[in-house]
Amino acid sequence: MTKSRNHPTGKVIGASTQRLEGPEKVSGRAIYATDVVLPDMLWCKVLRSPLSYGRIKNIDVSRALALPGVHAVATGADVHGLLIGRKIYDMPILADGVVRFIGEKVAAVAAETETVAEEAVDLIDVEYEELEPLLDPLAAIEPAALLLHPDLPGYRGLLHPIERPSNVFVHMNWGKGDVEAGFREADIIVENIFTTKPVHQAYLEPHACVVRAQGNGGADIWACSKVPFALREQVATAFSKGLDNFVVHPCYIGGCFGGKGDFMDVPVCYLLSQKSGRPVKMVMDYAEEFLAGNPRHAAIVRVKSGVMKDGRLVAHEMKYVFDSGAYGAFKPQGYLVGPKEAAGPYNIPNAFIEEKIVYTNKIPCGHMRAPGDPQGFFANESQMDLIARRLKMDPVAFRKINLMRDGDISPIGHAVPHIKSDAIVDEALRVSGYWNPKQKHAGRGMAIAQWLPLGGEARARVTIDDGGRVIVATGMVDQGAGTYTAMRQIVANELEIPVESVTFEILDTGKVGPDTGVGASRATRIFGSATQMAAADARGMLLDAAATSMGIMADGLILSGSGAVKSNAGDILSYADIVKATGRPIRGYGHFKNFAVGPEAALCVQVAEVEVDPETGQVRLLHFTTAHSTGTVINPLMHQGQIDGGVVMGMGYALMEEVVIDGGKVVTANFGDGKIPSIRDIPSLKTVIQEFPVGNGPYGAMSIGEPPVIPAAPAIANAVQDAVGARIYDLPITAEKVLRALRAER
Predict the structure, then answer these.
(1) How far apart are CA 16 and CA 149, in angstroms?
(2) What does pTM read for this prediction?
(3) Would strands 456-464 and 351-359 be described as parallel, antiparallel, or unpaired?
(4) What whole-number distance in Å separates Cα of residue 304 and Cα of residue 321?
(5) End-to-end alpha-carbon separation of the chain, Å?
(6) What CA–CA distance (Å, rounded) separates 141 from 154?
(7) Cβ-based neighbours of 33, under 8 Å, separated by 6 or more
(8) What is the dihedral of CA 639, 645, 649, 655, to 10 degrees?
(9) What's residue 561's pLDDT?
């Protein structure tokens, strides 16, 4: 790894400290939702639809109810007309007269054991009227297409008015200039269509929850949700109950990658808990995860570029069609945020980005690491190489002509004061050996992506007790990235104590004000900033209390660096003694609220080197370099862990991962059929880090969780074409597709 560092904050920030939760996780002491057991708890199992599309003519649950050990059975009739969603409320709690995808929940059972619940589900009789499914998103867009959601205009949470029913429930656009005038000006027009497939997040822990309904209409909830306040609001809103009566209790999350922000089975367990008067637990098995989870969206991306003969981009148009599946309920903003930025870090005077999201009779899609970005950047960075080839220009040289520099205006019209593009591109090329000679049938490809972090709201408190112990508390549920440890480092830095002296408390939603939760690579920005505020507040109170005890002015005091306050005269008072003298704990509070995007951009440049067998089409990844222009790195070990995980996920997206759907049915329902990278698939990795303390996080930190996953697929696709001349327009890049492309070239 190569690094360029300039830390303004001493040795706590920038140190690879041990993760706070590591010992709990490896010892088995960490409590996940699957570990929660309550007195008199029942188990939930659900009956799922075998049809992509159909009407429910009749449901008979009498045999299930008669089975000993069954305490409650629920169907859509129990929740008729109730809808739920993260933003757009379009999903029924249980299928309400209609099933819209194979795997939709039709009925649910609460029983004393999992075995009895499974037996009861098998005893439920459902009579369906099968309907012709709508599986092609392009066909679904057509005005004459069958409407899957005829009541769409009345749904809660729509992003824009829908004048008449359509299968297109999101239609948004962004841009600047006059793209049609730009195309008229251009010397050359390059048009291509790129497609991607749905992909599952492949987290270790399947969705799980426990719900204990209360007599006041509320509930206690334990769930693997990274957004507990949003979960509370969604369930309360769907059932028209008081928000404050719902309490979400913190649990560890066994991997997320974007997929643990939804409500999943919590509403059904709440319903069954109400009906039975007992707590209800559900843990999805992994076949259900593949069948009815919330994978990354499949996409069709049409890219049209206007370019001058000297290589200048003058017009660029990207039109997306995302297949949402049967519902749009799993998207927290209602749309996918990434696509609007996927025109890349380029100076383009005229640009137009259009995003359509459409209903089909398939598994509903949701968020996965960098939602919408990998699809868009696969298309855009592949297009950049194709334009360069059309111009007979080196792809690197072409990009450098068009790269944004500090202060330039993005393709959709916002200023980016910091991007530092040239230095990180040059270093990525140098470290990767991009210009070195290559063996036969080997190729190198590069791709670039920028990342502007989203904002949010967070709260934290820092307490110093009479034993001198320091506790940072927040409602944040860490999804595995290590943010608790980063927050401890921030407190240690502000209070000038060893990080080992700081402990952490996770608060339920009844003990702290609301926050926006973890997501969009913003956890350190929002929770870290709230923690920094709380620690600074505690520091100020600590100095004031010490000044009172010593009978001097606070400006004559400093922190000693060892859990004590020191005066100019050399008098020392420990934190514990200061608190004892005060008579109560010192407690600082921090509330961060900033929803601004960016404006500083983190830049990721990746170079892939592949070897392609021209006889079989098999692609072998030989080397991979990932270079990041970023902010202050708070914890290098965790920072590198995010990079490593993102790169491997990007490799899988590029070369093998796909939720295969045949006739509306998911046929890759296990990890034998649905492949993810193993250690044998992962090449040597080189990392370049260039730090600039200008980010909007604590001490100038920037996001790192999602940028590494974004440009991997186009870098690999560009390398494949460099190796054997085969251009792949559809992910994943399988041997069969490469071989077909090679034969088409011959």
Answers:
(1) 51
(2) 0.96
(3) unpaired
(4) 15
(5) 41
(6) 19
(7) 205, 208, 209, 210, 222, 223, 224, 251, 283
(8) 110
(9) 87
Contact between residue 396 and residue 434 where contact means Cβ atoms under 8 Å apart:
yes
Tokens, residue 166: 């359509």
pLDDT of residue 163: 86
**Pairwise CA distance, residues 96 & 597, whole Å:** 39
Report the distance separating Cα 295 and Cα 196, nearest Å: 12
Torsion 257-678-707-171 (CA) sign: negative
Whether 284 and 264 have beta carbons less than 8 Å apart is answered as yes
pLDDT score at 697:
93
Q: What is the pLDDT of residue 8?
A: 41
| Cα 706 from Cα 257, distance rounded (Å) | 9
Residues 6+ positions from 681 with CB-CB distance below 8 Å: 621, 651, 652, 655, 656
Q: What pLDDT digit, counting tens, does each position of 601-617 carry?
A: 999 999 999 999 999 99
Other CB atoms within 10 A of residue 437 CB = 6
To which residue do tokens 């892939």 refer? 608
Residue-level length of the chain = 746
Q: Is 540 helix (H, G, I), strand (E, B) or coil?
A: helix
CA 89 to centroid of chain Cα atoms: 20
Distance in angstroms (rounded) separating the CA atoms of residues 99 and 54: 5
- Maximum separation of any 2 CA atoms in the chain, in Å: 89
Low-confidence ranges of the chain (pLDDT < 50): 4-9
The answer to whether 419 touches 694, Cβ cutoff 8 Å, is no
Supply the DSSP symbol for 103: T
Q: Give the per-residue pLDDT at 6.
A: 40
Other CB atoms within a 10 A radius of the CB of residue 23 amount to 11
What local confidence, expressed as pLDDT, does residue 3 receive?
56
Q: Kindly give, in sequence order, each residue whose CB lies less than 8 Å from that of residue 319, ignoring residues fewer than 6 positions away.
A: 301, 302, 303, 353, 354, 356
Are 356 and 320 in contact, with CB atoms under 8 Å apart?
Answer: yes
Closest CA to 265 of 283, 277, 249: 283
Q: What residues contact residue 640 under an 8 Å CB cut-off, 6+ apart?
A: 1, 687
**HSE-up (13 A, CA, CB side) for residue 214:** 15
DSSP secondary structure letter of residue 156: B
DSSP string, 35-62: G---TT-EEEEEEE-SSSSEEEEEEE-H
CA atoms within 13 A of residue 356's CA, in its CB half-sphere:
19
CA distances from 98 to 92, 94, 106 (A): 10, 10, 9
